[in-house]
Every structure is written in structure tokens, then in C-alpha cells.
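note to self — DONT lose this again. spent like an hour looking for the file last time. sequence + predicted structure for the chain T wanted, 586 res
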Amino acid sequence: MLNEILAYAERTGLQSEPGFTVKTAKWAVFINEQAEIGGITPLGDGKNGLTFNHCPDLSQGEMIAGGVTRSQFLIESLAVVALFYKADIKETELKKFQIKREYFIKQLELASEDCPELACVAAALKDPEQLETLQSLIENQQPKPKSTDSVTFLINESYPLKSIAWHNWWREQRQPVNAINDKKKSVSTMRCLFTGAAIEPVETHPKIKGLSSVGGLGTGDVLMAFDKEAFQSYGLSKSTNAATDEITAKSYAETFNKLISDQSIRLVNGLAVYWFGHNLNDDDDMFAELENPSEPLAGQATRPKQLLAAINTGQRPDLLGNYYYVVTVSGQAGRVMVRDWQQGALTELLINISAWFDDLQIIARDGGKLTAPPKFLAVVGCLVRDLKDAPAPLINELWRTALNQKKPIPYSAFTQALLESRKAIINEEAQNHARMGLIKAYHIRNKGDQHMNIHLNQEHPNPAYQCGRLLAVLADLQYAALGDVGAGVVQRYYTATSQTPALRIGQLMSNAKNHLTKVGGGLAFEFENRLSEIMSRMTAIPKILDLEDQSLFALGYYQQLAQIRAKMAENKANKQAKQTNKEINP
């Protein structure tokens, strides 16, 4: 996985240099050439801040090397830059911020020889009156900043962070700090785990950031580290067990951080981070399509099918020979947890996602059209009342199923979908399309059901399916005869009929005779024909239905009900058209 990340970094020209990294500043302080603070403003969209690609950076080890408390340079927290913190701060914490602030200002003064505009920043921060001004500006901001928010500076409409004037100074500044750490090293030259070259292994690797929403820490999480004696083979500690040099470690961490930021999908409690062998246009990104599918126009194929057709007809040769890579990660106790890793040809990905959408597609509950491709999280969400309740193993299994048409639908997902579909019917809730599509997909993938269609199949050979159809028609007959009677046939008998149909259908058919007499005439004849057609499909009514047969019952009921609703809408439209024509041509 890490080799592929490094290969991606090389292909895309992502360069990483020790001591530099990508950072995001949420605030900028205006300072003029007279060393006066003129204001503070939120950056970016006001929430996520503004990204700077080449910021100075000290690792955690460098921050405390030699027992000296240091700060970052040019971009720090408001607690350090402005001594902005909560009123109940501990004395030890306050002292730490004060020491860091003194170091921060000293660094600005030293760097001003190479970057003169930093002198006015240092002077402004040293001035007690300007500090009070800054603290007052922060207090009056709405919404109010957090003490941990990052801040940088804006001088004459220019960010010193974007200047290269301080770069060489910064490289030299880091050397004494690293020399302190180098004295502690007891490991000689080793072979790099990735390149095979002879290197001096770095003891700690940069942290992976961006996983705070999936169990990670806000300060970042470690991907490669060994802090238990059982993991420290041959006397090697920390990250020397996975030997690599500082530049390579920096490269994989920075590239992974960028991928998390730009190319990842939230899977509730994990992130699917992905990339391709060759960069794709946004419209060709199939992982983005899984996250938020584009709804095809009437008569058009889904986006994966369109791309497959373009490849087969020679219109998109650029997609041939491309590969995809996707890793699912989350955070746990300060560590990056790798939960899944998949790679393969892009054409295979197109085929698999196309099959996923096909298997899930089903007629809409109103019978008017086919459902649009569902979002991946909509499929997960149809199984639980709240996405937060979705178990991580279930999500991971569904994710693998979406990316591989040969994988069956997880049985736990199938049973949960069946349970939720039954609840929706009993509670008279609108049936969820993704849920019914998932039950349909189970029979196609897991049972090889060649008779399972997107819409109603009157000739489906399974009697459980026909029993579901029968209940839908009987409910329609009751409504035609009696109107809305509150708890009708479905609410009272659906669960029992779907589990022990032979016991209930006889009773329901007896009641149907009374309803046929009530509706009378041609409508009664029409209902008799519909009931006879369904009964003719069964040689016998099953006594007991297992879970899989109960799901066929649910599909038969759902698809028959969709056809009934579509017919009602058609009749209503025809009646309205006749009325309109009569008014125009009396």
C-alpha cells in the first residue's frame, strides 16, 4: 500500500521536504509596516481555513529536543500567538504558552534578516498594547475563535507564508535541532523498507491527519510505530522496525494526508481513501459516483455503463490500462487502523460498480419509474434508524460487495433489510427503495434468481413471491370495497401471512368474497381475474416460509403494489384527459 502511495507521489509530482508540510490557517492577523495590528479575519470559507502548501514544520520530537520547549514558525495557535485561552487555564499550561510565544517571536526576529517584513510582525507581538488590541479583536469575532485555531499574518496584502525568502534560513535553523536528536540515535545504517537503499532510519514518522471524524486525534495519528516491547525486534525501537529515511517517511505521510483531504469517502466510522494510476476527470471518478451517483436521464445508462460503452467502442482509450487503489482507514488510540485494501484494473471497477447499481435497481414504490442509483451510505442507512448505529464490519462488507460483483450480499445486511421492510409496512411508512433493492440484489447474487426482475414478474415460480402479490391485491380489493378502514388487511395480517401463508390466506380469501359482492359489476370481475391469475401460479400455498422466502413474499407484495399504484395513476390521468377534452370540445 505504501509503495503505491509513494509511486503516486512520484507520478503526480508531489514533493515532500523534511521541515515543510501542508498546513491550514483559519485566521490571519493584519499588520502594517509600522508594526500596528489592524484586524483579524477568517480565511477560506470561514470554517475550513486557507491551505498553504509549503509551511515550516517541526515534528513533535523536534518541538521538545534537548529539553527546550519550542513553537512552530509563522503559523501557530491563537493560544500561542495571542495568549488567547480559557479563563480556567492551569498555571502550567499558561507558562507553556508564554514560553512558546517568546520562542515564536524570537524566531521571527532571527528570520527577519532574510525576510525583512517579519520584523514588524515580531515588533507588533512584543508590544503589550498591540497584544491587547489583538486579544480584543479576537473576543469581538463572531463566531468566536477557538484557542486551538491556527493563525498566520497578512502584511500589505501579502502572506509571509507564501514567500520563499525564509526557506533557506529555516533549513539551517532545523539543523541544530536535528543534531540534538541525532546524538540519541543508536541505530546504524539500515536498508529502507521501501527503496532498498542504505539509509539512516528516522525514529518517528510524521503523523497522518484528517481522521478526527472517524476516531482519530485532532493532532494526527501514527501509521508506523512500535511502542510495545513485543514489537521491538532486535532491540529496534519506535519506527526503526520499519526502517525508512526522513524524506521517504515525509513523502508517504504528506501524500496520504493530501489523499485524505482530496480523495476520500466517509463510510460512517471509516474513510475510503483512493487514487488512480493515471488521474481522471471528475466525471470519470467512480468512487465519487458511489458516494453521490449522478442520476441518468430517461433512457440513458448509468455513468459506469456509459464509460464501459465508450471503452468498448474505442471512444475512451485513455481509460484502458488504468488502475485503482483504495484503502479504508480509521483512527484508534492515536494509531491509524487499516481496515481494507483493494486494487485492480479500472475496467473491472467500472464493471463491478455497474453491476452494483443494476442489482440494486428496482421499480419505484409508486410504479411510475425505475429508482435512481442509490448513494452507498443510503444503502447502509436503509438498514438502521441512525447511521451511527451501523456496525463497522457490516459497512466494510457492503463496501467490498459494491467493489466486487462476485461477492454476495452480507447475510446480516439481508436479514436487517427484511426486518426494516416489515416494520415499514406495519407502521404504514413509505418503503425505502434502497432497502427493497438490497433484498432484490440478495436473490440475484446469493441465490442466482434469474426470475427476479426490476419490476413485477407475474410468472415468478416461487409461491412465496406469489403469496406476496396475493396480499397486495386483497388489500386493494378491501380498499375498493370499504375505503380507508384504518388498520386493514395489511396492517393486521402482513407478518402472519408472510410467515405462515397457508394458515391466513384461506381466511383472507373468504373475506374477499364479501368484498367482491360489495364492489360488484365489472370491477368485481376484474378483481376475480387478478386473484385467479395469481392462484393459478401456485400448486400449493406454503405452510411456513423461512427468511429467504419471506423476503420473496416482501418483493412480490412490493412490486405488485407498485403496479397497482401505476395503474391507478394511469386511470386518473386518462380520466383527467377525457374531462379536459370534453371541456374543450363539448
